[in-house]
Amino acid sequence: MNFTVEPIDATFGVMVTDLDASTLDDDSFAQLYALWLDHALLVLPQQHLTREQQIAFAGRFGPAESGIFDISTVRPDGDLRREEIEEDASFLNMLRGNYDWHADGSYGPALAKGAVYSAQVVPKQGGETGWADMRAAHDALDDELRARVETLAARHSIQRGQARRGLVHDERNIELGPEFNPLRSLVRRHPETGRKSLMMGRHAYSVPEMTDTESRIFLDGLVEFACRPPRVYFHDWQPGDVVVWDNRSLLHCVKPWDMREPRVMWHAGISGSPESDSILSMDQVPA
Ligand code: OGA
Ligand code: MN
Question: Which of the four pLDDT bands, split at 50, 70 and 90, describes residue 287?
């Protein structure tokens, strides 16, 4: 290896040091990519990438979603977002949705492949990002439940995901109307490694052949089982840290923090492809 790799105390994830993500040669990147597929999460402390460097680094993992999306309590003009301002409140509500475990884009036409995520400004308390290993969760199910989930699917919706916390989805933040609620298998196969993993999280709301209440109890139970040690890791951010996660293998969430404090994170999304996804149908069922 052209860098130093240390394990993380979980079923997944590695800490990678002694590398500069902005100047990696192709050989080193190939090693890093293989490590990423294997461990699903790379933690690269203290990279201090510029926006351009982060976008370029993300672009090596796959096609870019749309440059960098600022996941931030600070407005582009530098002022803190304020609850009294309608547009700010809507954005803060979108951030609050992330308090619950989810996979990015599970409610849309294609699940994201992953993301390169970095910390710019961190709050004094809270705001740790957590990831949970859905491959290990799948493997840890008892035989009966593992056989059962194999036959099941769930509808996903951004509107339903926000509604769990009494929040209203605002299409100004993520352009997706209620006509999108793809039916996804609860078990998916990783398009590159072939490993099976569970697919659910806050956007999953309805399992065909179950009532809404039965679906909720069943899906919440799965998340509660899946997202617990040794299958979770929470990162306590320092500005300049960079993380790369495989969104096809992991769920993620953020621990609540005081939104009157600045927290500025850069999300460089890596696009997934509908062909390698686990969507069974895109029927336009009312959300
Ligand atoms: C995201 C996300 C959580 C966080 O960027 O997709 O869910 O820690 N972020 O801000
Ligand atoms: Mn997310």
Answer: very low
Please state, in angstroms and rounded to a whole number, the distance separating the CA atoms of residues 233 and 67: 26
pLDDT digits (tens, 9 = 90+) for 118-151: 999 999 999 999 999 999 999 999 999 999 999 9
Q: Which domains does the chain have, with CATH numbers?
A: 4-282 (3.60.130.10)
Contact predicate 99/126, CB 8 Å: no
Beta bridge partners of 269: 115
Q: Are strands 153-156 and 183-185 parallel, antiparallel or unpaired?
A: antiparallel
Query: Phi-psi bin for 286: left (phi > 0), alpha (psi -120 to 50), beta?
Result: beta
Residue at 223: amino acid letter: V
- Spacing, Cα 143 to ligand 1 middle (Å): 33
Task: Name the burial class of residue 68, with classes exposed (0-12), middle (13-18) and buried (19+) by CB atoms within 10 angstroms of its CB.
Answer: buried
Q: How far is the CA of 147 from the centre of ligand 1 (A)?
A: 32
Pocket test for ligand 1, best of 129, 250, 259 (most atoms within 8 A of CB): 129
Q: Which two tokens stand for residue 35?
A: 């490590």
In sequence order, which residues have a C-beta less than 8 Å from that of residue 195 and are 6 or more positions away?
135, 189, 249
**How many residues are listed for the chain in this entry?**
287
Best residue for ligand 1 mutational test, from 98, 236, 243, 259 (most atoms within 8 Å of Cβ): 98
Can you give the C-alpha Rg of the chain in angstroms?
A: 18
Tell me which amino acid residue 133 is: D
Residues 211-218: contacts with CB within 8 Å, 24+ apart? 215/154
Locate 13 and state its tokens.
């994830």
Q: Whose CA is nearest to atom 3 of ligand 1?
A: 254
User: Considering the entire predicted model, what is its pTM?
Assistant: 0.96
What percent helix, strand, coil does the chain show, rounded to 5?
25, 25, 45
